[in-house]
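Appendix B. Raw example, untouched.
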Amino acid sequence: MSIKKFDPSGCLYDLNDYWGRVQNFMDKFDVRTLLATEEEIYDAQEKIVRWKEVTLEGSELFEGEKLPTDEELWEAKKLVDSAIHPDSNEIVPKPFRMSAFVLANIPLVSGIAMSTSSTFWSLFWQWMNQSFNAAVNYSNRNQSGEELTERDLAINYGAATGVSMGVSYFFQYLLRQAKEVPASAMPFLRAGVPFAAVAAAGCSNIYLMRRSELDQGVDIFDEEGNCVGKSRNAAEKGIKQVMLQRGIILPGPIIFIPTLMMAGLQKVKFIQKSKPLKMLTEVSLITGIMALALPMVIAIYPQQSSINRMELEERFRFLRNSNGTRVETFTFNKGL
């Protein structure tokens, strides 16, 4: 099967199709990309830049130089897209890339699972979890606005982790008070209450770590790729999409499926007799489902989101392109 011709601004998969976006994010979230060094990432970026110079700009090849194949260029783009932020053009720290999301969650999920009987350790692991989420949200935000000051960043971090932990602890407290619930309903309650807690905490964290986008607006582009200004309406739409994806939809399968499956495993005696085995089974289920769900949920919306002119501020509604045609749809990076 022949590989698609390389397009530096395109994608190996059809991003207008949901399953195409799933395949694209599975590529970008490939944990093997974490093994690449900074030098290898910049080499991959330079490979694409050099191809564009020769192919699109007419530069001559150096003596003995060969252009990379389409397959090599797509591999280079995969590495660049997985590691370099599209707005800042800087390398995202490894722990906070989406390709590290599942691996980084293994110790967090394990810590939360082991600390259910201790208020101190439960709060500690919730703080660790929400701190990690805050770092991921900040690292993968739209970065077209001004950089936050250290003071503003500290305030956002404190608010994000504090509110998220408070919400999560409140819901966990409600679960501990549920003493007169029928045994048949307990698996649903044990899944429903944590889901509400995680969803509320996740949405709070995303909003608070990215609220500067709502103040400054984000860059929006016409169909010719020209930046026409910053829009707060676009920022609001992007943050709402991320809150729906990672804040509300993603926790659903990660919480409900393992909880209900563990309830079904209550009859398996050798698992129930061994606490370490029970915890290992639960953590393995959560991790496996998270690895499957992450690209499928993130793919609900394209990373380069679109917005109709009538959804934007009035100053953008009647812009025209170079041909004099009114621009109907604009694009922007909604972040991950």
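End of appendix B.
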